[in-house]
Amino acid sequence: MCHVAFLSTDNLEAFFVYDELLIPFFNAKGWRVTTVSWHVKNHDWSQYDYVVVRSTWDYQQFPSAFLTVLAQIDAASTTLLNPLSLMQWNIEKFYLQDLAEKGCLTVPTCWQSVFNEDALSEQFDLLKSDKLIVKPVLSANADDTFKVTPANIDTHIKVLSQTFNSRPFMIQPFLPSVVEEGEYSLFYFGGVLSHAILKTPAEGDFRVQEEHGGRLKLVTPTAEQCKVAEMALASMPAPALYARVDLIDLSGSWAIMELELIEPSLYFNLDEASCQRFVSAMLRYHSSLQATKQ
Predict the structure, then answer these.
(1) Which of 62, 81, 118, 208 has the maximal Cβ count within 10 Å?
(2) Is pLDDT above 60 for 222?
(3) Cα–Cα distance between 6 and 155 in angstroms, integer?
(4) Number of alpha carbons in the 13 Å side-chain half-sphere of residue 133
(5) Buried b (16+ CB within 10 A) or exposed e, 27-57
């Protein structure tokens, strides 16, 4: 019997977590599942066959400590999923540059290392947009994300300067399609499409995350959306057990907003078959790993 650890965090009260829906499906295959916070000290990770990074909602607040724990798990006699090298590549959104270099369409982005008011103001013209989104290079759940316009920039300057004084950040044009149509998320388990959802923001907001009032619904992705998402997956430095590809309409073409490989929510609640698909992907991975050891 295999023993799997779901890597989580200490306090999940403010978050939506659906990983417990997986447990009966693992149990039905004779696998045991234990949920463990990544904050736990001096833990024996070698007692698990696999450690799967799941609801680590606060990792972006302590990135160095989080990566240290992942390295400790990777060094133990267990298998970390997604692989450490893949999560190290994915934890900062600089990976979007790699995807763009490999021909993937991404949202136009200005990358900044030190906050400068004049440099921000220039982006209205350079990105040809009267609304800008400013957010950290390392972030999750829309933390420290701002919508800036020429009319409100003065009121944002102080907090932007404090937030990004010594923190790399990115500037993107605000895309009207976010509120007009929404953002599509395609979920892949073991490289195979499982399900897709459409996320739309609450009235008057621009953030599509569930924690910010975003509305979610299950959808069937188009062939073109799948093509774009799978091009992103093919551009990763290694295969992933699970991946979430976010797509947005960019002037009539599907662009990659994010490719998430440290993803706390895979929305198992929206597709009743998604749990079985995840477990099946895990079993395929296990069989493949066992075959390489023989």
Answers:
(1) 208
(2) yes
(3) 42
(4) 19
(5) eeeebebebbbbbeeebebeebbbbbbbbbb
Backbone angles phi and psi of 148, in degrees to 5: -115, 135
Strand partners, 37: 8
17 pLDDT above the threshold of 90: no
At 146, is the secondary structure helix, strand, or coil? strand
CATH numbers and ranges of domains, the chain? 3-81 (3.40.50.20), 95-106+177-263 (3.30.470.20), 110-173 (3.30.1490.20)
Coil vs helix vs strand at 14: coil
Contacts of 26 (CB under 8 A, 6+ apart): 4, 32, 33, 279, 282
Q: How many Cβ atoms from other residues are within 10 Å of residue 159's Cβ? A: 11
Q: Are 131 and 71 in contact (CB under 8 A)?
A: no
Contact 157, 116 (CB under 8 A): no
Q: What is the Cα 191 distance to its own chain's centre?
A: 16
What is the arithmetic mean of pLDDT over 98-102?
A: 97
Query: Does pLDDT of 210 surpass 90?
Result: no
Closest CA to 66 of 177, 140, 160: 140
Query: Nearest 5 degrees, angle CA 124-CA 136-CA 249?
Result: 60
pLDDT at 195 > cutoff 60: yes
Helical segments of 164-203, H only: 177-180
Helix or strand holding residue 248 (H, E) = strand 242-250
Determine whether 81 is exposed, middle or buried from the number of CB atoms within 10 Å of its CB (0-12, 13-18, 19+).
buried
Here the tokens at position 48 are 């698990």
* Confidence band, pLDDT 50/70/90 cuts, at residue 133: very high
Which residues is 106 bridged to in the sheet?
Answer: 256
